[in-house]
Amino acid sequence: MSSDTEEDYGRDEKQPIDGSDANRPRVYFRRWIMVGLFCMYSMSNAYQWIHLNIIANVILRYYNASLPGDSYQKQMSIDWLSMIYMLAYIPLIFPATWLLDRKGLRVVGLAGTLLNCLGAWLKCASVSPDRFGVLMFAQTICAIAQIFILGIPARLAAVWFGPNEVSTATAIGVFGNQVGVAIGFLVPPEIVPNSASLDQIGHDLSMMFYGTAGVTSALFLLVVFVFKKKPPVPPSKAQAMAVEQAAGEKYGKSLLRLVKNKGFILLTVTYGINTGSYYAISTLLNPIVLHYFPDQELNAGRIGLTIVLAGVLGSILAGIWLDKTRTYKGTTIGIYLLSMLGMVAFTFLTKYVNQIWVLFVVGGILGFFMTGYLPVGFEFAAELTYPESEGTSSGLLNASAQFFGIILTIGMGLLVNKVSPLEANITVSAALLLGTILTGLIKSDLRRQAAEKRVCGKDYV
Questions:
Q1: 18 phi/psi in degrees, rounded to 5
Q2: What mean pLDDT comes out for the span 370-396?
Q3: Cis peptide before 16, with omega less than 30 degrees from 0?
Q4: What is the pTM of this model?
């Protein structure tokens, strides 16, 4: 790989080509290949996060013989197929971020796709009612793969994209994860319906698992041969300085500076509440929908699909909006408030309007703002913490999301099983209200923009 020439990266047609500007920042066409490939393998990992929980009632029936305890404990065991992604992330994100800072995008990409592929193949060996433990172990491997994926978008954007493209590139990176969740909502109920025969369910699960294993294997090979650490020349002076500093920085000192950054700590808490709420709703969407609309497994998946596709649109529009306006705090507060209002609508319309099409409408509204918030949070953090590594800041944001995701999923699951989905949804609405208030307390300290202005002077736009 070291023999690659600059021509192999595809010079952007807008960049100068004379030899006098050899060290001038530039972007390469290959940046689109990089972000596209990342989107695909991020998609495959996100798919594996939710593809079991959206058919939770089917998984519960099939593996019932190897599940522990009473009905609540059995349901909680199924919920942990999703929550293991959250639990694994919290302690392991720190060594993963250190690896990203020291070794760069390629090594981390290889680690993530290899583990993702391995977990997918292990699931193929779990198809038997007495092998829930094997299924959980395989899902744990996929969860570990996630730590080498979730924090990548902001770093990939900084390493490969120019200053006027980073928000859009980050949004595209998050887009892959969201599409994976969308496929995870849509496809499993179609492939694995709630058949009366356990043998038929086992056959359907095998079809789903082998298909996933084939796709993840192909993506691993693509990363081996295509994914690069960085371009020959950085796309931005300010970002080049930040990436170089991250590579030589003591990781502990960087973490300490982030912990002392009050604006970033507030953002970490509010990001965790918003994204953790999304994780909890996604995990428990199947039992919530089936509580109000029995035998609607297919529509539960389609409602999840609607939430995610609306979020994809919200993410891309938010990224473009930030690149054009750079109104980070205002955009963050606005999206957060609308997420909270969307959750309130979802809570009460689901309860009091007995029409399933209403869930599609309010689910789409909720998804547009709640998942549209993801790239905004990444980019606001990059601004507040410059010149710290984007991998470190986004890693901490995601760790917060996993922490709140576990708390909210367990809390919602308990309320759904012991009380009702209404109380569970009201709890999430209250959490989002708190997050909106805390977001308003964040000071708009846009350090990355200030650095770019100092470096580029009047040429910065």
A1: -75, 155
A2: 79
A3: no
A4: 0.77
